[in-house]
């Protein structure tokens, strides 16, 4: 029976260069920087940073086509194809940390089932360090040469997963979805979970998410940090310097005089963040990329969830104990399923609770970013399900202390 292949769902750019070149994103470890290999042409995803900000300004580069769709194995053939001793290239549709952690967990299971397969990923972008946690994987963070592309037996386009395009309104669990699509059992998880108090225990607090719907309120973050530090733990508060609201958020939390509290504005690379999560004895996190990274190492802690479902996002992983906002209002209740702010037809930006409108009036994502609004939402006037975390803070502190047995 002939193998089922068809053009990829995502379009790619084909380009050539008369001169040698190398590229690497600033938030990816330098060891994953890519260089040309003498091939006549190269391929990159049209939406990538490379295409938008680098290639178009490079005098030695010639853009040949923006509509390349390489042949990929069809979605309905994934579970019926044998990949052992084959070279397989996975096309990564986005570099959101949570999505890519789920893909890495799936790839772990794929490598167990097909130990003789040679695998690689293309256009992993800012999440390249996450894929690099896998042994014996080739990471093409931004592009691949025509020469290397021809060496693969199969190309698999993760964009073909049904429902992933709706992730802004209803988060999914990529690990479970991909394992089901390929007919592969997820890898067994380490048994047991210990968060018992230890002398000098290292605790990381990571309160910032990419959306005000999921960033923790500063008042809760400050009190949580102080409670843990007073117990004698070494507490590190990690912010995100890549987010425009970070300075305002940090100023709102305020400074600490306790010597066992340190604040880090952010890490230069995702690899630094991954290493930090690996080294912590316990973490307290918002619904964000770091919460997913804990799955790679089964780091214990508490995940605090607001608009998104903790049960769906955490899936089968039990390393984090889950705290879900209990907000209920006239227009919504947590978890509503939104991952990002939405906009009304008139351009008002928020969510059902903050704007007092039904979901039917929030059909669009905002066209433009509004820094001032974002700052207000993460500091002064959080959306209702986030504000509810402060209203329920005493219950949360009791939950945290019980988990750590303090």
TrEMBL record:
Q: Which InterPro entries match?
A: Glyco_trans_9, LPS_LOS_Heptosyltrfase
Coiled coil regions, renumbered to chain: none
Q: Which domain of life does the protein's organism represent?
A: Bacteria
Q: What is an annotated GO biological process for this record, any one? A: lipopolysaccharide core region biosynthetic process
> Record's Gene Ontology CC terms?
cytosol
Keywords noted in UniProt: Glycosyltransferase, Transferase
Q: Mind listing the GO molecular function terms for this protein?
A: ADP-heptose-lipopolysaccharide heptosyltransferase activity
Q: Which PANTHER family match?
A: TETRAACYLDISACCHARIDE 4'-KINASE-RELATED
Instruction: From the Swiss-Prot or TrEMBL record, give the protein name.
Output: Heptosyltransferase
- Provenance organism: Thalassospira alkalitolerans
The top of its lineage is: Bacteria, Pseudomonadati, Pseudomonadota, Alphaproteobacteria, Rhodospirillales
